[in-house]
Design a protein that fits this description.
The chain is an alpha+beta fold and 188 residues long. The chain is 28% helix and 29% strand.
Length: 188
């Protein structure tokens, strides 16, 4: 497990290879649902914070309705062969969905996560940078347009979103990108 920084609440475990509900070890070729679940953690000083943790659920458990409490996001996966090259489990729709679900979240680690997702979606040409705005707190907001929606909706402001620039340095961007890779990779 990695963390964005020592005080961060952003923690994502690597896939365990076991169903979170049944404990059964999944084997190559097994289909499953990878999930991100919110968990409350209380530190030794009694301070409470929410973290995202990954839990993999066998398709059998998922299809019978087993779901973790506080489910944040999920996507389908297949356990790879041991020597198979890593590949992304998620498609563009899942990335956009995760990006949108983080829109109202103000936790610093999730703002950083969303910002890096925005950079990835820009690279994939799913988001287009249109400009920058500042608010009364001198925070920098990037104005972005969703490319797919722009094709189907002629209204100029129909699918615009603002992304807070957390002003990450190069090391922080690398850490968040690495964590994002851990969440999305097909590694068991």
């Amino acid at each position: 497990m990695t963390q964005f920084n020592s005080s961060s609440t952003y923690q994502i475990d690597r896939p365990s290879g076991q169903c979170a509900f049944t404990g059964v070890t999944m084997t190559p070729g097994d289909r499953y649902m990878a999930t991100l679940v919110e968990h409350e953690v209380v530190d030794d000083k009694g301070a409470s914070q929410w973290v995202l943790k990954r839990a993999d659920i066998s398709m059998e458990a998922w299809e019978r309705g087993d779901r973790p409490e506080r489910l944040f996001s999920y996507w389908k996966g297949v356990v790879p062969e041991p020597n198979e090259k890593k590949k992304l489990f998620v498609d563009d729709e899942v990335l956009v969905n995760l990006f949108r679900r983080l829109e109202e979240d103000e936790a610093a680690d999730r703002v950083a996560f969303r910002f890096v997702l925005a950079l990835i979606l820009m690279r994939k040409k799913m988001l287009k940078y249109e400009g920058m705005e500042s608010d009364e707190q001198s925070r920098e907001w990037w104005v972005m347009a969703h490319k797919a929606a722009a094709k189907h909706n002629p209204e100029p402001d129909a699918e615009r979103t603002r992304v807070l620039n957390p002003r990450l340095d190069e090391d922080q961007i690398q850490q968040v990108t690495s964590q994002l890779g851990e969440v999305l990779q097909a590694e068991l």
